[in-house]
Amino acid sequence: MKILLFEWLSGGGQWIDESPPSLHQELRIQGEQMLKALEEDFSSLGITPILPLDSRGLYAAKSETQVALVDSAQALTQQLVQLAQTADWIILIAPETEGRLARCCEWLRESHQKFLSPNERLVRLFTDKSATCQFLTQNGIPTVDGKLLQPETASVPIMTSDIIANLPGVLKPNDGVGGEGITWIPDQQSLVKNLNRVWTNGTPKPIRFERWAPGIPASISVISGPRGSRLLPATRQVLADEPLGAYHENVDNLSPELRFRANQIGKRVAAALNQARGYFGIDLILGAKEADDLVIEINPRMTASYPLLRTITSENLAQAMLDLAMP
């Protein structure tokens, strides 16, 4: 059996980006750590990993891994399609920003039945943070108050908008990843200033405003499939700067009470996913009390917490993915 493991930054995605993307260096390290963990977990099951790798990179694959070097944007798409045809399963890992992950799914539409990661429909849904919050609300899951602001909002006095009632808050890309591009908004003046800055630099595009939700940033992951779902241990997120900043790492130090509360929300999200196949990372804010707990977003892909989670669980998570994915 073979599994195609594609990770955007080490696998040649930067040929598509053409120039160094805005993604910070830490994302590159996290991507390689996820890829290495998956490679080891599937290899230990006797499954041969297939890895597309950027010819300019330094990723050291295991000797039994099948490697395909990628030296151009055209070669990437062609090789992914060809490799997908020879694989039994496929896992795609890419930042959601600028539609990167959705494009990967689109390239491999003809092989979608082999996906061990979320399908294109769910990737597009959860890439859109505003649409994600609508999905959560429709399923009765508490989420943060927010609003998608369009570039034409710049011509409307902010004071007349209901958004002013939600200050303080944060501005964030509607398809952001890893906490990049988040800006603290304490008052109306800061909101106007930052909207003007965003919409006068480059091509104007919608940006999301969210009410500030105080609490402990945490995450819980769920593996889902036709045979049910499996919640993994909840962990705390550490940011590069507090209270806002780029994602740095996950640590296993939540109290039993907070772990239980995160698990309760995770169960509700897992039920809403309705046995959709894949690995989903759920970002949370655990408030001062249980009634204040919120889901911030859902990541339709492997997350940077996977290397930690595989060390604090008693099973091979690659095996769990396969077990739940079988019809």
Describe this structure in words.
Helices cover 34% and strands 24% of the residues. The protein is an alpha+beta fold and 327 residues long. The longest helix is centred in the first third of the chain and has 19 residues, at 25-43. Strands 9, 10, 11, 12, 13 and 14 form a six-stranded antiparallel beta sheet that branches. A four-stranded parallel beta sheet has the order 3-2-1-4, with helices on both faces. It folds into three domains: 2-115, Rossmann fold (3-Layer(aba) Sandwich), CATH 3.40.50; 126-143 and 213-325, ATP-grasp fold, B domain (D-amino Acid Aminotransferase, Chain A, domain 1); 146-211, Dna Ligase, domain 1 (2-Layer Sandwich), CATH 3.30.1490. The chain has helices at 13-17, 25-43, 73-86, 100-107, 120-127, 129-138, 188-200, 256-273, 306-312, 317-325, and strands spanning 2-7, 48-54, 66-70, 89-93, 146-149, 169-173, 183-185, 207-211, 216-225, 228-231, 235-239, 247-251, 278-286, 294-299.
User: So how many helices?
Assistant: 10
Overall number of structural domains: 3
In percent, how much strand structure appears in the residues? 15-25%
Provide the low-confidence segments as ranges: none
What is the first-to-last residue Cα distance?
17 Å
Task: Examine the secondary-structure arrangement and name the CATH architecture of the largest domain.
Answer: 2-Layer Sandwich
Features:
single chain, 327 residues, alpha+beta, Rossmann fold, D-amino Acid Aminotransferase, Chain A, domain 1, Dna Ligase, domain 1, 3 domains, six-stranded antiparallel sheet, four-stranded parallel sheet, 10 helices, 14 strands, 34% helix
